[in-house]
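TL;DR need structure tokens for one chain.
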Amino acid sequence: MAVIHLVEGPVGAGKSTYAAHLGMAHAAPRLILDDWMATLFRADRPETDVMVWYLERKQRCIEQIWNVAIDMVEAGSNVVLELGLIRRQDRAEFYSRVDAAGYKLEVHVLDAPRDIRRQRVRERNMAQGGTFFMVVPDEIFELASDLWQVPDEIECEERNIYFVR
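>> reply
TL;DR here they are.
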């Protein structure tokens, strides 16, 4: 049975780099929310009220990524998803969807100290290299970092969670 690999963690933890390695190791295509968001909506990003604008589009992208991922899994392909499910409740909703469909799921969680992540994000904003999808201003970095919820004991007991250091 094909496996859905979900890669999660706070901004700047190294998720996209890790997802690339994971994709290569499992011959799995990667579906990365930030890539979809940048490709589809970067030109429309407002200067103010970015979070309201972002959250609505994020949900639409996740729905379409799910549809594409299911097609891949049904065809027998592993898939790597990076969806920005930073809150436990968001992950729980995703887990319910996977369970209802009967698919195998492995969750890979990355993290790093906030000061290191902040520096990585600032450097990525400037270099705009291979894992760059859009500029993450300091205030958005801080907001997203404050929202990040590490999987708790219950989530770890119920799921195949691998912590990547």
